[in-house]
Amino acid sequence: DPVRPVVISTWRHGLAANEAAWNVLSAGGSALDAAEQGVRVTESDPKVSSVGIGGWPDASGVVTLDACIMNEKGDCGSVAAMEEIENPITVARMVMEKTPHVMLVGKGAQMFAVENGIPKKNLLTPNAKAQYEKWKSAHPDAIKSRTINIENHDTIGLLTLDSQGNLSGACTTSGMAWKLPGRVGDSPIIGAGLYVDNEVGGATATGVGEAVIRACGSFLVVELMRQGNSPEDACRLAVERVISRSPDWKEIQVGFIAVNKQGEVGGFCIQPGFDYAVYDKAGGNRMFDGKSHVT
Ligand code: SD4
Fold first, then answer.
1. Is the CB of 55 inside a 6 Å radius of any atom of ligand 1?
2. Which residue of 22, 158, 171, 264 has the fewest CB atoms within a 10 Å radius of its CB?
């Protein structure tokens, strides 16, 4: 096939994730394996402050992780508010493959991971701890308020089209820095942070999760592609829907990326500043600036 395989993922840290996903795909591996292996790189990079180890903690200083995964058969798995497990995407995949459930949260998700041989690990790096302490001393009452940081929202969502033409996706995050304890965003929610339909395409989201959840963002992008829109047009129309349901849209960022069954890709966001990484045969691994509603 002249187009396949294709990998697309959110933000600049997507380049390294794409590389790992591409290694799986170019060896003939599956879209699902590639999606998992790709985002594991980001989860395990302590320098990425919004995913996995090194992620910034919640308002009580605890790192909690959210992730979900979906394959070409429509199977899906998810974990949310999980502590001390470095690679939540792998646990999400285990939920998908080893249980009759889709989603496990909190202590139960962690117990399930440990029972399946994944060791617990401290995820709060010295740098993340220092950032937390700085924020905490500037916002002593923040745990009682709804103050959230909107800059640190660089979730990785990654979509794969393998050489057989199958689609999969993965999405993983530490969520919004300084979130209220127990808060879960869009990233582990199938249809919000991620959706894949093997007949149509896949989509994933980044940004303020509450706004994405209210619009069923990623599901909406896929449905818009089903109606004949290109990936970019579908992302743009979904961003417009998010805006129409978010009175605070001028203050928030939301971005979507998508790939369709033909291997075409696209992205769109509210505010300038969102970029995404695409890896394909024709162009190699490179960044694109997401077109934005605000220009
Ligand atoms: C969330 N969408 O928890 C995530 C945050 C994020 O890039 O970083 N998105 O709301």
1. no
2. 264
